Amino acid sequence: MNDAWITALLAQLAAHDVHADEAPEPGLAPARLIRLAAEDWGTLARVAKAAGGRWVAGFGEDNGEEIVINACFEKHGAYLVARTQVNRATPILPSHTPYYPGADRPERHAQDMLGIAFSDHPDARRWSRHQAWQDKDFPLRRDFPVAGRAVGPTPPDDKYRFLQAHGAGVYEIPVGPVHAGIIEPGHFRFQAVGETILNLEEHLGYVHKGIEKIAEGRDAAGLARLAARISGDTTVAHGWAACMAMERAAKHEVPARALALRALMCERERVANHLGDIGAILNDIAFTFGFYQFGRLREDWTRVSQQTFGHRFMMDCVIAGGVGVDINDAHRSAMLHQMTKMRPDIESLMAIVEDNASVEDRIDTTGYLSPEQAKDFGAVGYVGRASNIDFDVRRDAPYEPYDRLQVDVPVYHYGDVAARTKVRFHEILASFKLIEQIVNALPEGLIATAWRNPAAGAEGLGLVEGFRGEILTYVRFGDDGRIARFYPRDPSWLTWPTLEKLVRDNIVPDFPVCNKSVNGSYSGHDL
Amino acid sequence: MLRILAKIQKIGIITEPLPATDQVALEQVGQQLRDRVGELFSGSLAIREVDAGSCNGCELEIHALNNPYYGIERFGIHFVASPRHADMLLVTGPVSRHMEAALRRTYDATPEPKLVIAVGECGANGGEFGVSYASCGAVANVIPVDAVIRGCPPTPLDLMRGILEAIGKRSP
Which of A136, A512, B28, B54 could tie B92 with a disulfide, CB 3.0–4.6 Å? Predict the structure, then answer.
């Protein structure tokens, strides 16, 4: 981690007559915190962009008097949190979207949830709000009741203004929210000519469950349970990020064994999802052999998770202060034995997949995301790494126990469905290596320490590499150890927008495989 | 191609009879399912799955029903793309307010007679999310529900047992 870029950025800001106060806030470590005036918010983004910083997340909070807004940037594994505040009555703030397209939807989410008006945002349409609350209501404002104000059934959201395309032969395909398969709901609007996709516009927010609002007032145990259900496929990583944020806020020491077990579960979660998704990608190109083979491996894998941690997805195994389950020597050898058997199995399957002409025909060059586009959107995880974004929180901003483990990070620059599939395959093997390292050197000792509530106002930042990429979670405590603000940023916020770009000029029948190769979480994004 | 065939032959059929556990074995549940599906749905039960606000955990397990271990299609049960082709809706929750209208429309589009199963803790009672400005809570708060399958998420075997129980309630 090299934070020289932040020091240089501060000098640049000073050169632009921007006064930025560096305020130490231990809970936000490893990130550095600066405060600046609202009118300088746009300059900050411009300077950060010029300095090569990646826009990570933006989130606000109504503290009863002002609305506090944070933006997080990263470069070389060094994180910077910038903070400003605006008046509740006239909450106007310059937008970061003109410099960072990835900020578009998070800012519109903040607009819908907190009522912040981003003055030069290129797209003022609502994003998270459909019809469950009114235009002038903002659920994350203190005076908005958690039960809401609506009476009677919620009307359908059929007035969203999609981009229109005109011209001879241009037609539109509306898809969703209820999709044809067993998948999450969302709406896709295609403009197409013949078989070719001219444009795709996503309209998400259908599974908005009010997670940020209902987190308020929970205790630490309650927040961990909620975080475990942000996105069911990422239950371990989201649980970990939330607990890490709470533990940093409370300066809570977590036993080494607990951290090793968290990493073990997190790697198991990564492998399970990659296995399932490689199978699903192959299913979407009608290579059903691969679908069933990888489906078989995923089930084998999930059963060992059940045997060792007592739950197929290891849900609720991460708790504030540690983990809720321990493993014994029999569990350790079961895991090692399974990997010894499975590694050659996966390798032989990937060899079949990579040599198959019909697979190659469908996934090579399909759904191309250029390295420049990936960088623009700040794409993370396998989507970024397939487009030359060489970043992984576990390696570049390592948290325990990854600081003493070898993390292999596969990177490709082809940016197509094939590259995203290959990254996942190599990440499975990398996770196997990590699991071996963890299982063979599991520290002895406690698996949790008793939780103690921090003082009101304590805040913390969790940064965890989930299977989709970097998760950032912000927590601030209020009185009596109750949560005052919870913001989990799933990596999907940064990868969903890339899907709109990478499907262009592909044929409509290739949309499912393009979508699956990105596999954004709807639930994790909609909150 | 030879490698594909070799792989298929080497792996063989893994579809279970599970090794005996304390649970009712898969094969037993499956046999009962096949009998009931045969009796009540002429051998073919069509299910439309609706995610009405789930965290996607239930969907992962519903997916698993189609993997080669559970292979639910061999019992005459298959998932269909349209509610108009469905005998049964398998609905996960909590029902988000933003999915409320879509769920009602999906329900209305499913021909009578139809069965609705609410899946998971959230589908059954709202789970961790409950009722709020954004969530209607249980599926039964939005559409009529015939049966629930509890669990967070229910395992594939729980799902098969729950489906069996639900169709058992229906008279031929």
Answer: B54
A487 backbone dihedrals φ, ψ, rounded to 5°? -135, 105
Report the complex ipTM: 0.94
> A140 near A116, Cβ under 8 Å?
no
The model's pLDDT over A74-84, given as tens digits with 9 standing for 90+, comes to 999 999 999 99
Spans of all domains in chain B: 22-169
Overall pTM surpassing 0.80 (yes/no): yes
Q: Within an 8 Å CB–CB cutoff, is residue A521 touching chain B? A: yes
- Is the Cα torsion angle B21, B23, B27, B31 positive or negative in sign? positive
Q: Tens digits of per-residue pLDDT, A326-384?
A: 999 999 999 999 999 999 999 999 999 999 999 999 999 999 999 999 999 999 999 99
What's phi and psi for A4, nearest 5 deg? -60, -30
Distance from CA of B36 to the nearest CA of A (A): 24
Q: Domain coordinates of chain A in residue numbers?
A: 4-118, 211-526
* Cα separations in angstroms, A33 against A65, A187, A243, A273, A424: 21, 37, 21, 34, 34
CATH class of A211-526: mainly alpha
CATH classification code of B22-169: 3.40.50.12280
Contact criterion met (CB below 8 Å) for B97 and B133? yes
Q: Is the pLDDT of residue B20 over 80?
A: no
Q: Is A236 on the interface with B (CB under 8 A)?
A: no
User: 3-class DSSP state for residue A512?
Assistant: helix
> Which among A126, A143, A159, A207 is the top mutation candidate for probing chain B, defined by the most B β-carbons within 10 Å of its own β-carbon?
A207
- Number of CB atoms found within 10 A of residue A63's CB: 16
Q: Which residues pair with A84 in a beta bridge?
A: A69
Domain A4-118 has CATH 1.10.238.10: no
**Å from B172 to nearest chain A CA?**
28
pLDDT in tens, A266-310: 999 999 999 999 999 999 999 999 999 999 999 999 999 999 999
E-only strand ranges, A170-306: 170-175, 187-193, 196-203
Pair A452, A322: CB distance under 8 Å: no
Q: What is the pLDDT of residues B29-68, one digit of tens each?
A: 888 888 888 888 888 899 999 999 999 999 999 999 999 9
The sign one gets for the Cα dihedral A360, A361, A362, A367 is: positive
